Amino acid sequence: MAYKKILTIQDISCVGQCSLTVALPILSACGMETCILPSAVLSTHTAGFSGFTFRDLTDDMPAIQAHWKKENIKFKAIYTGYLGSIKQVGYVRDILKTMGTDDCVRIVDPAMADNGQLYSIFNQDYVEAMKVLCGEADILVPNITEACFLTDEEYKETYDEGYICNLVEKLKALGAKTVVLTGVSYEVGTTGVVVYENGKMEYYKHDKIAKGSHGTGDIYASAFVGALMNDKSVYESAKIAADYTVKCIINTQGDADHWYGAKFETALGDLIKMLA
Ligand code: PXL
């Protein structure tokens, strides 16, 4: 397996099992040297906790990037998630453009919305900035809510293939080369991932676990990047990430005290086996 230096840019939610506290261990377990650029530091994530602290690290970014440039540091993949501000989206666009190796893969998870709603700190101006960043991705990994905000389409709970194809077409029109759309469910009891690549659309269907968990989008995207960096195809990576995320949710089910995240650590062994 190739050992690669990759960069992930997202927040540190100190408690809550999302963003960097998920991406770093998952990518490390996948065998990657994982460098981080924290977008913000929060006491907890924002979905369900109240009174969280939020330190925006936007203004630290240019100096960090300048130092890395001076040290000739380049990354084989750059994977972005939850960002701290609109100004920061601009800095991240520049990092995507300038800090990759010639064969760098740029993966963007818009990480701004779920269940039909934007996360609390974001607004329409942020959505507009995110559209530009998403257009510059090699691989875009949105959920359906994010796809709707990015394409100005109405969010629906039930839909057909035509609705999903239209979303994917419009996401491609933003400029992203490859799209991995998560949480696509056409029937009760199953959900899945739509993968659009090189003019071909495929669907991987799997069980839908009744319990929805916070942070599963981050678990999914991190495992996807980890599999991809292990030279799996986009479709195979999308499938591995889905199977792993389902295991994490199953391992969390039935623990009412664990409402804020998924016990992704308990299935890391399974993920490593899937990569073998
Ligand atoms: O999992 C997405 C996420 C990441 N980071 C923070 C969040 C959320 C979801 O709410 O609040 C800070």
- What general outline do the C-alpha atoms trace? globular
Distance between the termini: 9 Å
Report the uncertain regions: none
Kindly state the mean pLDDT as a whole number? 96
Number of helix segments? 9
Give the strand order of the largest sheet, numbering strands 1, 2, ... along the chain. 3-2-1-4-5-8-9-10-11
- What order do the SSEs take from the amino end to the carboxyl end, as H and E? EHEEHEHEEEHEHHEEEHHH
Proportion of residues in extended strands: 15-25%
Structural class: alpha/beta
How do the helices and strands line up, and which of them pair or pack?
Layout: E1 5-15, H1 20-29, E2 33-44, E3 54-56, H2 61-70, E4 75-80, H3 86-98, E5 100-108, E6 113-114, E7 117-118, H4 124-135, E8 139-140, H5 144-151, H6 161-174, E9 178-181, E10 190-197, E11 200-207, H7 216-229, H8 234-252, H9 268-275
Parallel strand pairs: 1-2, 1-4, 4-5, 5-8, 8-9
Antiparallel strand pairs: 2-3, 6-7, 9-10, 10-11
Helix pairs in contact: 1-7, 3-4, 4-6, 5-6, 7-8, 8-9
Bound molecules: 3-hydroxy-5-(hydroxymethyl)-2-methylisonicotinaldehyde.
3-hydroxy-5-(hydroxymethyl)-2-methylisonicotinaldehyde binds at residues 11, 13, 18-19, 42, 45-47, 82, 111, 119, 215, 217-218.
